[in-house]
Amino acid sequence: MEIGQLKIKIEGFCKLVFNHQLSDAFNEINQTIDEHKNLLYLKDKVRKQVEIYTNLLKYSFTNVKDPERDSIYSKILNALYGIIDEIKLSMIEENKYWAINTIRQEINFDFQTNREIIEKSILSGNMTSESNKLFKKIWISGVMNDEDLAVIARIVKSKETSWVDESLIVSALTISSIMNFDEKKLRFLFDFYYKGINKVWQRAFVGIVLIVYYYSPRLREYPDIIKRIKLISKEKDFQKNLQYVILQIIRTKDTDKISRKLHEEIIPEVAKFKPKIEEKLRLDDILKDQFGEDKNPDWEMVFEDSPQLFSKLEEFSKMQIEGSDVFMSAFALLKHFDFFKEPAHWFIPFYKENKDVKEAFRFEKEGFNSDLFLEGLEKSAFLCNSDKYSFIMNIRYMPDVQKNMMLEMFNAELESMNELVKDDELVNKSMIDKYIVNQYIQDLYRFYKIHPNRIEFTDIFDDKLDLFNSEIFLNWWFDVELYKNIGSLYFKQEYYNEAISVYNLLIEKGFNEQSAFEKIAYSYQKLGDFENALSYYKKSELFDLNLSWTYKKVALCYRELDNNEKAIDYYHKAEEIEPENLYVQANLGHIHLRVHDYESALKHYFKVEYFAPSNTKILRPIAWCSFVLGRFETSIKYYQKLIEHNEASYADYIGLGHVYWCMGNIENAVETYRNSLLLASSGNVSIKKDFLEDKEYLIKFGILSFEIELMLDFLFLDQVNQNLL
Fold first, then answer.
1. pTM of the full structure
2. Predicted confidence (pLDDT) at residue 384 exceeds the cutoff of 60
3. Could you read off the pLDDT of 225-244 as tens digits, one per residue?
4. In terms of domains, do 109 and 167 share one?
5. Which residue in 294, 311, 433, 593 could disulfide with 601, CB within 3.0 to 4.6 Å?
6. Is there a single domain that holds both residue 114 and residue 210?
């Protein structure tokens, strides 16, 4: 069975248990056990729980009250979760070709025979390869036995263990718990967090957040864990640290945003009816450049954790400092070195004393201070640990000339960046904590996305990662400012479905600010759901603030919903507040044109021309409306202006030809129509169609229907003759 299929099956079991559909859960689990011989040993365990559950049900519907009923029911749920975990582990072991099984066989033997040596080495504080063995032992274990748990307990209490070894143990506990839940491992993560060793507690905190999110429904059956979850929320900087983690995890969605959008976020475009005349006159172009009015200028997109460093660096640096994983694609190709064959090395913090790093810098180069360089790289906040090792390993195998050039270039850039770091907010402890968190999450992301055996892992980053929607987050970790920032980031990154969910949660929790309704409305608008957008814009209108912007948005929604009368009404409301707003004037022109009120449309288009004489795009609808109203001289004047500014399209030449023809100037009409043919890129059939769509106006000004057909044949006669040759 593929890991993806196994994951779906296990999630199905867990969902049944979580929803308290235990009869269905027992049936599904039994069926799976019967289908796999290596699972038959679980039959008695399931039978025992069925028996307990049967008795519980019997007593539940008698007059005898059982004070232990809820406790027994909770134990049944935990037992079922445990059976599900065993099914998962056994089915992984069934696939002998999986690399993780090879690691399991090797390390179980090694660890069993050398447990004391490994433990002694780690407790001594000497950073050796023994920590890699403990890492693998923890990683591949299901539920840990008492002896292994005792080893970790002694390491937690030790004051001699190196922070590097502890950080590796924390990482092993995290990825192991994600693979197979074990509340004892989660307790150890809490222990490492409270131990407070710098660069370790931040990693432990990330692990706690991920596991609490991933197993949120299950954790409610563990009172001791729930107690710790409640207690940790009372820590001084808890909300700030939680914000760092959640915002960085959200940013991982952007690491491969294009492919994610293709596979996960494709939103069917709402078919919008636009009259042909709007397309022909290119009305949308009028608003694109000068009159565009999209997001509310009053919205603040600044987060509490955004450093002032943004203003000092270019866009690339801004993205990296904010936490965007801009180097993922560049360093993905540099994970093939032997260094990364050791699973622990995907998580080892970068430190200059590392023997592999020292080995890479054994070459001598006069004038180059490798210690200073490595110290700068270690402190750098602009690469995650994994990428720092990739860079060093790559340097190691470069030819000397290329190596020296690369080091000099990188060293200069590193010094420049670290100088900025010194002078800015990064000297603040909380900002250093933030960058440790960001880099660690990027390390995790690389492990799950690039590791050669990643198909065998439970990739938490493949899930929708809606941490804000977790039962535990909402019940015990909820904070208004945190959720506002989560919503703002989703909104800024254009994840509109998630933004809607977050802001709705805020509203449900009593957050009653106009910005929440505005952003929900705007998100629906961007998703093409104009009915819901209109509903929330109308709610926003009740706040009696930002009325001009709100009126314009309400009008837009009515326009998209083909309620032109209401759209005109709301654009006029906006016009009363901002009489010289060109966006409003242009849209009023468009809607009046749509309802064939050309006189009113022309009035608004003239206003746009008056206030923005450099906008040549407004000439087009003025020329057309003037033609329809029979103001031929005015129409010719504006079509000629379009031609002078090289703005005229083939449709404009058709319009100008109409004007000449209606004035009786057939020679100019034919010449202008032929110019239209030369400009056309969409083919003759389309031109004929566009021409005939204007038939009613030609007839209105005295052109006979029969003459229109003759004119078209005359224009295309040359083509007919050519085809006959």
1. 0.80
2. yes
3. 999 999 999 998 999 999 99
4. yes
5. 593
6. yes
Q: Which two tokens stand for residue 216?
A: 């949120």
Residue 204 shares a structural domain with residue 234: yes
pLDDT higher than threshold 60 for residue 272: no
Residues 74, 115, single domain; the answer is no
Residues 6+ apart with CB under 8 A from 216: 470, 471, 472, 473
> Is-contact 30 23, C-beta < 8 A?
no
Could you give the CA distance from residue 250 to residue 436 in angstroms, rounded to a whole number?
16
Is a pLDDT exceeding 50 seen at residue 85?
A: yes
Which one-letter amino acid corresponds to residue 116? E
Helix-strand-coil percent breakdown of the chain, rounded to 5? 75, 0, 25
* pLDDT over 90 (residue 49): yes
**pLDDT at res. 382:** 77
Domain match, 89 and 154 both: no
Instruction: Name the CA dihedral angle for 389, 395, 397, 402, rounded to a multiple of 10 degrees.
Output: 160
In this model, does residue 282 exceed pLDDT 70? no
Instruction: Give the domain range for residue 76.
Output: 3-94
Q: 42 lies in a domain?
A: yes
SS3 call for 237: coil
Maximal CA-CA distance, the chain: 105
HSE on the CB side for 561, CA within 13 Å? 19
* Averaged confidence pLDDT in the chain: 83
Cα dihedral sign for 405, 406, 409, 415? Answer: negative
The contacts found for 450-453 with CB under 8 angstroms, 24 or more apart, are 450/332, 450/335, 451/335, 451/340, 451/343, 451/346, 452/99, 453/98, 453/99, 453/100
Query: Which residue is it, tokens 């995790």?
Result: 444
Residue 119 belongs to a domain: yes
Provide the domain count of the chain: 2
Rounded Cα distance between 695 and 658, Å, is 10
- The whole-angstrom separation of Cα 542 and Cα 516 is 13
- Do 180 and 201 fall into the same domain? yes
- Crossing angle for the helix pair 385-396 and 429-450, to the nearest 10 degrees: 70
Question: pLDDT at position 421, please?
Answer: 56
- Higher pLDDT pick, 263 / 59: 59
- 72, 94, 116 — which closes off a domain? 94
Token reading at 117:
């040596």
For residue 265, pLDDT over 80 is answered with no
* Boundary (domain end) residue, out of 206, 227, 254: 254
pLDDT of residue 720 exceeding 60, the answer is no
User: Do both 144 and 187 map to the same domain?
Assistant: yes
Q: Is residue 535 part of a domain?
A: no
Provide long-range contacts, Cβ within 8 A and 24+ apart, for 633-638.
Answer: 635/659, 636/660
Residues 43 and 177 in one domain: no
Alpha helices in 527-581 (DSSP H): 530-541, 547-560, 564-577
Domain assignment present for residue 15? The answer is: yes
Dihedral of alpha carbons 108, 110, 112, 116, sign: negative
